[in-house]
What we know:
The chain has helices at about 5-20, 55-65, 85-100, 110-125, 140-155, 160-165, 180-190, 210-220, 245-255, 290-295, 310-315, 350-380, 405-420, 445-460, and strands at about 135, 170-175, 195-200, 225-235, 260, 285-290, 305, 385-395, 395-400, 425-430, 430-440. With about 475 residues, the chain is α/β, with parallel strands linked by helices. The protein has 2 domains: about 20-100 and about 360-464, Alpha-Beta Complex (Aspartate Aminotransferase, domain 1); about 100-345, Type I PLP-dependent aspartate aminotransferase-like (Major domain) (Aspartate Aminotransferase, domain 2), CATH 3.40.640.10.
Amino acid sequence: MRIEDYQHWARRAVDWTADYLRGLRARPVRPDIAPGSVAARLPAAPPEEPEPLETIFADFEAIVPDAMTHWQHPRFFAYFPANAHRASMLAEHLVAGMAAQCMLWQTSPAATEIEGRMVEWLAAALGLPRGWSGLIQDSASTATLCAILTMRERALDWAGNRQGLSGAPRLRIYASAQNHSSVDKACWIAGIGQENLVRIPTRPDFGMDPAALERAIAADLAAGHLPAGVVAVTGGTAIGACDPVAEIAAVARRHGLYLHLDAAWAGAAMICPEFRPLWAGVEEVDSLVVNPHKWLGANFDCSVQFLKDPAAQIRTLALRPDYLQTLGRSEIVNYSEWTVPLGRRFRALKLWFLLRAEGLSGLRRMIRDHVRWARMARDLIAADPAFEIATEPTLALFTFRLRAGDAATRALIEAVNAGGRAFLTQTMHEGRFVIRMTVGTIDCTEADVRAACDAIIAAARAPG
Length: 464
Ligand SMILES: *Cc1c(COP(=O)(O)O)cnc(C)c1O
């Protein structure tokens, strides 16, 4: 493709995107299509000869948008949001054009230095202690994996990377049942094993019970196992559970354990000081992950892992073969030495654009609106006698169900989602099927939240 053609089509793509975003409210949030229907429209083999962009673009318009679930739709209340602020989209386009590999300072000086500064900016915005460092990962899953690998190597005095794990003591990692499946997967990948991820019971508020954590560690020590670390959560995925971070940190410190806090979704809200009690004690953790690619509006992927002291993680993951040496500069930061992949995207630019274009004040306003509207939605649904609130709002997430039971609740969410006016997802809570509602997309308005509640209540009244 010639640069002139790129210029023409890039303009077309931007115009298309603007029209798409303006028209989102008129689309069903989730498409009503059968699995396989998209693949059936694509040829089985790639083209031998070049095709005109006109044809390719027309096929995109004909095949793709109607077969997408629209995450930027103002009535998307499912999972957690994955927002893409316009300023951040612009930065992504510029990054795509430069297409740099950001593994070393030398391969991308501006990317490395802006990444360092953006980690500092975000730490300040979240009220974290001065002096923390960190990096931008692709996902919270990777950040949690890096933290668990660090727990492993630290507990083994860095013998695992050299000798492997056979013959090593049984390593133990502690987390509550409200933690995300990425913790399980990290234990698999790290060679620690599912059976050595110890699930600590929760208190009535669904936060991890520190006394139970203490007992589990003592039992493991008595059995000759090797406790390695604790993963706590602020804003668990199912119902938004928050562990008591300060109390857990005290237990971890007493036993010399590394502590990682997963605030992938809820962390964004901590730009508002009034929400920070939810993670009181955060200054005590060793590692913390917050995903600006969820609520804050940096389009995927952009997951910031903060580290009180990066030395242990770098010692676990840095590997510097001859061909990656930067001659004469051994003191510079090479972020690939802090994580698993070598190649890295220039993710900091979208954070730079986003934080400047919206300002912390603009982002705080958005988060506060969402939290307020989630409470409003909770009240609207609670006011209907057919419903009961299963869990109260944590920030902008709450869960509810029909008093009529699991089957009726399941039928209700299927009807709402099939209707296309809103999209929500479900979870199991204390053995019961509940609907999750999380408010959080950037173009959502109070009217959208009311419309979704109307659709939910109307579907519950509908015969059948
Ligand atoms: C979304 C989420 C994750 C996973 O995030 P990825 O960036 O998709 O890996 C982990 N933990 C919590 C609490 C989450 O909400």
